[in-house]
Each structure stands twice: as C-alpha cells, then as structure tokens.
C-alpha cells in the first residue's frame, strides 16, 4: 500500500522570488512532488503545496524550514499576514494510505527534528496539539513574532512543545501540525476600507459566532479590503455558502464582493457543490459530470489501473520471448515488494497509541526497509543490464585478444547483482519476522506475504548466482561467493 501525504508549508516571504525558489529547491527530493506555489507581496507570504510519500515529505519539510531560517529575517519583515516564524506553519494532511493519527506522529517527528537541526522552537497545532488551547493556530500565533519573543521565556503558556523557551533570533518559531484538507479562500470587496473587511470576517468566522469550520480576518491587499478565510471542512460548510454570507454581511456596509481567489489547491468536489448551487441545475448530482461518469462506467478498469498500470508493463516484459528481464530481475522485484509490504505494516502501527512503546523500533525498521526497497528496485534493471553485458562479452570474445577476461569480468558482475539481491531479501525477511510482535495482529497476513515474497526472492536470486558460478574460472572468487551464499 502506498502512502501519500500533503504538506502545505507557509513561509514569511512573498516578494523575493529568488528566496522562494531557494526554499523550494531545498525541499526537492525523490518521492516528493511540487503541486503548487503561491506568492503574495501584500501578505509577504508564500504557500507551497507538496505531496509525497510519508518518509521523504517529512525530510523535505525539515529542509525547507532550515533554508527559510537562512534567508528570512523576521526582525525586518513586514506584511499584512500574521506571522511568528520564517517558516510560519507546516501542516501535514492525510491523502492515501495514512490516517490523521499518522500525520500527528509525522508532525511530532518533524517538530523534534526542526529544533534539533535548526534550533527553532516548535509548537504543535490542530490534531497534533498537546493542549486544547493550542488547537487553533491563531491562539498560538497571538502577538506574532514580536509578542512571542517578549513572552516565551516568562509566560508558561508560551512554552514551546519542542525546544527551549527562546525564539530563534531571526527565524522566530514554527508551528507544525496535522489537519484535514483546508481551502484557503479570499474575497475582495469594492472598498479600500479594511475595517469593513474585519467586520465581515468577524461576522463570518466560527470563533465570533459565525459559520462553523470558517476562520477569517480582514486585510488590505492590492489596495482593496480582503476577507481572508480558511475553510477547514468544506463538506459541512461549503464554499458557496461562505461566499453568500460574506456578500450579505458586506451589503450592510454598502459594499459588494468584486472577486475571490483560491490560495493553493481546491478539491473537485468543492467546485461541484458550487456549480450545483449557483447554476441551480435540476436534479444535479456529480454523475452528470463527464469525467465522473467515465470513472463510474470504467470503474473496474480504472480502479485496477492505478495499481495495474505500474506493474503490467514489467509483467509483459517478463512474458516476452527475450532473455531480459528474466529470473534475476523478477527476484529483485518481488524482494522490493516484500520490503514495501513490511514497510506498510510498520507504518500503520507506528504512531498508534497501542504501539507507542515500539515507536523507535518501528521507525528504525521503516528507515532500513525504505533503503532496501530502493536498492532492490535498482537491482531490477541492474540484473538485466549485467546479463546483456555477458552476452556482449561472449560476442566480442572472438575479436579480442583478451576476450576470455572480458567474459570472466562480466560473469562476476552478473553473479554479484543477484547475490546482493539475495542478501537484501534475507534482511527484509528478518525485519518482517521481527515486526510480528510489535505491529497490529490484524495485519498478520501482510507480513506472511512479505516473508513469502522475500523467500522467493532469495531462492530465485541464488539460482542465478549458481548458474553463473558454473562458468567462472576464478576459484578464489567462487569460494568467496559460496561463503556469502552460505550465510543467506
């Protein structure tokens, strides 16, 4: 099972493109993808939307915070948006294969690492909050950088969750958390009077008796009053209802909305409800949308396609009447699958209350399995390539004076690759065995499958080792390989 997590870090820089580019570059790594980036000069803030696998996206966030600390100085920073840190807020949002509890564990790990690596104090918010009053971001950020700097050492309520009671001198403090998908939605009014925007925001937001799941504030942006909002549950309080509420409240002061904007990304489902509301289509439902109907009609193919599309080409290559890919590549592939399954089991137990005592063991297992998985995936192509080199060496032997040496060298490499696969698969099997007592027993079948795949990978890889050893004349090399085989 794959894991997909969204991370939407907000940085206190919206005017210097070079600085934002550098922060984004710092977060680039395998397994993490940039979906969106927004810069706002008036707010002097940028919002970066990333999505990726659980392990690498944590590291990407930590690196982004570090780079922001290098480039952003809050002692000279000015902007309309409240801020307390160079990297102001870093939320993790579950997308696929992870729960909100998993994202809480991620937030805590990232928070601890930010302090450890960058000496920036960290507060936890939303689902990761350690106390009810820290659930809401505005409570933590009250007074902004300057207010927190003045109180952090003397006010117990300001003590960070990670780090000492002192802000970083230029980077301030960072808030890290876990939450559901949030829509950042702003409405511009046809007036420069920011007091009107503040009054409208107060009427609309939940904390002042307004609409549930709406947070709001008023700002002056691009010469216009802006009602800036975060919609924390668009299914219960949809976008169109919020817009109508803003419009109605603004009318009390003789102004109207002239435009609105989405900061970051918005789910398709949210726009479907907007279309239904404003178009007033009779008997509307989402199946009237072409793409949704195609998904429904082709459901079987499309549902399988997400998994099948990745593995099918390789399976067909195995079935083709060609020498590569062959058994060695197949052994590497199923070894990688074994590591993937074991990682999934460990990941779904880590962070859960019942397994907190095994947190360190699970984290270590996940880290090692992730490395083994990548190495085994690389071996799929390496095995095929090593066989091709052997074939090429045999063809060239007749034309070269030292052709036999070329064959010997190629055979040794073709032996080393599957031997490495067998050793890595053996390690995967061992880790999977140890995970049994420290993970959810309901996932026993996944561990059984992982161990069976690992054993098959070992058997297949060693068969490839043996067939190559039969043609190698270097007795010392053969003896050393057989010694390693005996330990697998």
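Sequence proposed for the structure above (488 residues):
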């Amino acid at each position: 099972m794959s894991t997909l997590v969204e991370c939407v870090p907000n940085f206190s820089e919206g005017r210097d493109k070079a600085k934002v580019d550098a922060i984004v570059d710092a977060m680039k790594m395998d397994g993490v993808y940039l979906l969106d980036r927004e810069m706002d000069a008036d707010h002097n803030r940028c919002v970066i939307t990333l999505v990726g696998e659980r392990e690498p996206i944590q590291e990407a966030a930590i690196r982004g915070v570090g780079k922001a600390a290098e480039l952003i100085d809050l002692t000279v920073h000015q902007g309309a948006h409240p801020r307390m840190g160079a990297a102001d807020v870093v939320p993790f949002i579950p997308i696929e294969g992870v729960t909100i509890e998993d994202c809480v564990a991620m937030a805590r790990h990232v928070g601890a690492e930010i302090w450890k690596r960058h000496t920036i104090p960290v507060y936890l918010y939303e689902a990761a909050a350690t106390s009810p009053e820290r659930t809401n971001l505005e409570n933590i950020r009250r007074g902004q950088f300057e207010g927190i700097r003045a109180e952090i050492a003397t006010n117990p309520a300001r003590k960070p969750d990670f780090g000492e009671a002192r802000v970083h001198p230029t980077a301030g403090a960072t808030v890290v958390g876990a939450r559901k998908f949030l829509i950042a939605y702003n409405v511009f009014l046809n007036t420069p009077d920011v007091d009107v925007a503040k009054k409208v925001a107060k009427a609309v937001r939940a904390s002042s008796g307004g609409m549930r799941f709406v947070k709001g504030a008023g700002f002056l942006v691009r010469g216009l009053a802006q009602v800036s909002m975060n919609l924390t549950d668009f299914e219960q309080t949809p976008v169109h209802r919020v817009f109508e509420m803003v419009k109605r409240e603004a009318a009390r002061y003789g102004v109207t909305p002239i435009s609105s904007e989405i900061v970051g990304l918005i789910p398709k489902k949210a726009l479907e409800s907007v279309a239904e509301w404003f178009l007033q289509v009779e008997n509307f439902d989402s199946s009237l949308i072409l793409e949704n109907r195609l998904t429904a009609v082709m459901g079987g193919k499309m549902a399988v396609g997400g998994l099948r599309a990745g593995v099918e080409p390789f399976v067909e290559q195995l079935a083709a009447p060609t020498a590569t890919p062959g058994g060695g590549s197949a052994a590497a592939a199923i070894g990688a699958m074994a590591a993937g399954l074991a990682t999934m089991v460990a990941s779904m137990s880590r962070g859960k209350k019942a397994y907190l005592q095994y947190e360190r063991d699970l984290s270590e297992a996940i880290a090692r399995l992730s490395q083994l998985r990548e190495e085994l995936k690389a071996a799929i192509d390496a095995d095929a390539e090593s066989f091709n080199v052997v074939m090429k060496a045999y063809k060239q032997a007749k034309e070269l004076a030292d052709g036999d040496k070329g064959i010997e060298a190629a055979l040794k490499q073709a032996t080393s690759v599957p031997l490495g696969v067998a050793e890595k698969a053996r390690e995967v099997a061992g880790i999977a065995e140890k995970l049994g007592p420290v993970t959810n027993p309901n996932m026993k079948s996944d561990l059984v499958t992982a161990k069976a795949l690992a054993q098959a990978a070992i058997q297949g890889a060693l068969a490839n080792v043996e067939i190559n050893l039969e043609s190698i004349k270097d007795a010392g090399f053969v003896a050393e390989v057989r010694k390693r085989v005996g330990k697998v």
